[in-house]
Amino acid sequence: MSKKKKMEPLTGEELLKKVKELENLSKEEKARACGYYTVTKNGVERVNMMKFLNALIDAEGVPLDGKPNGNGRGGRSASYRITVQSNGNLLIGAAYTKQMNLQPGDEFEISLGRKHIHLRQIGAEAEEVA
Prior knowledge:
Blueprint (H helix, E strand, L loop, with lengths): L11 H10 L5 H7 L3 E3 L5 E3 L1 H12 L33 H6 L8 E5 L4 E5 L3 H4 L2
Antiparallel strand pairs: 1-2, 3-4
Helix pairs in contact: 1-3
Pfam families: AbrB-like (PF14250)
Keywords: DNA-binding
InterPro entries: AbrB-like, SpoVT-AbrB_dom
């Protein structure tokens, strides 16, 4: 029995294009076809309409937050500030990785300065030199 691999949810222009192609389907069917679903332990597919609709709003470029340069709370807008967590970690949120089109598994080399951290993507040199 072969398992169908779940696709990554579509975003941006790809999402808009796919939704237009599927204009005759219900919104739940569109969400599923665009990858906005999960499969439970029992094998039941659950459509995540909230993520789907939020992705559509983002793809259309509709600003919902009143303060685009806020303190990083209450939405997906990047504040370009992070705080060291109580466990000593620095977390770079999804707003930044999404803006840079980073994918799971992308690797970086870390260089430490006196008061700065520099990240250099491993394997990106070939793309930068053209």
